[in-house]
Amino acid sequence: QVQLVESGGGLVQAGGSLRLSCAASGRIFSNYSMGWFRQAPGKEREFVGGISWLTGNTYYADSMKGRFTVSRDNAKNTVYLQMNSLKPEDTAVYYCAATRRYYRDYKSYDIWGQGTQVTVSS
Fold it and tell me: Which in 6, 56, 60, 82 has the greatest CB count within 10 A?
């Protein structure tokens, strides 16, 4: 199956931007839809957005629309999360995930990376 490794996390000031990357290895990356999730301290993991392996269409949780953009480069086996206008409440561990099923169904993601920490200072 696919193995996932996130990178690009770090410390950023409020209002700044950050782009996370998720490199995939293993089985055919292009057959997997990809998604991003995040988990803040003391909170449950939440869905950020996903991208279809077939169409490249994207889907976002309502609270994530407008500031977050998911994209992928199948030639590089990489998916990205562009985050703009970051707020302190965006501080979390960000995970990428893969699914062979419907990219809009956040419960379908069953392959996970180890996560990367994003900290937004006020």
Answer: 6
Q: Which residues of 31-70 are buried (b: 16+ CB within 10 A; e: fewer)?
A: ebbbbbbbeeeeeebebbbbbebeeeebbbbeebeeebbb
- Determine the Cα–Cα distance for residues 64 and 77; give it in Å rounded to an integer: 24
- Return the structure tokens found at 36: 């991003």
- Compute the distance between CA of residue 80 and CA of residue 39 in angstroms, rounded to an integer: 17
The SS3 call for residue 108 is: helix
